[in-house]
Request: fold
Amino acid sequence: MNTDQYLTFALGKGRLAEKTLQLLEKIGITCEEMHDKDSRKLIFVNEAFKTRFFLSKGPDVPTYVEYGAADIGVVGEDTILEENRRVYEVLDLGFGNCRMCVCGPESARELLLHHERIRVASKYPNIAKDYFYNKKHQTVDIIKLNGSVELGPLVELSDVIVDIVETGSTLKENGLQVLEEICPLSARLIVNQVSMQMKQERIKKLLADLRGALAEN
Ligand code: PRP
Reply:
């Protein structure tokens, strides 16, 4: 297969991928095979539209796009900030809205106010580091976790966490609060820098169609 002819999309597995497929369907780009939840297939090709899709772990999406293994990626702004890859971020897709926050028990509020040297657990060590060191000028110890970060303060691994808050129910069910808000987040479309030149016409049309579909929402 000459992959130059195809427009290749890398989608982060899960909710964002489903919403992305719904949006692409609105502009006439479909990929029926991808809706099969039981499938273990990794790459899906639509010959009629000359498009290829693959699903990967969210944090790997900017990597595939930077290296040109995918022309286009859809991923949360959190991942883009954390991974800091050389890609063009071209479109806010308007879904996957949530916030990056510092969270913890109410008792940790004092520690933040007084710039104490605290422990911060996060799946996003770069975002946490940037926030505490560059924005708050507070020295902290950052502990990288890979999920269920809310456990950090509950088992006294850390004083606070830096994590995504969407509905707030995970925090609530675990007796934690939002203590500080770092930034709002949403799903973004990213493009490989070479593809932006070499596949300019197709990508421009895709972006125009997507903007049109988003405006109708
Ligand atoms: C994310 C995030 C929070 C939760 C927030 O975790 O890390 O734990 O969702 O959502 P809420 O505000 O609606 O409760 P995810 O479900 O991705 O799993 P993980 O904890 O294993 O990373």
Observations:
- The mean pLDDT is 94.
- The two ends are 36 Å apart (CA to CA).
- The CA atoms of residues 117 and 139 lie 6 Å apart.
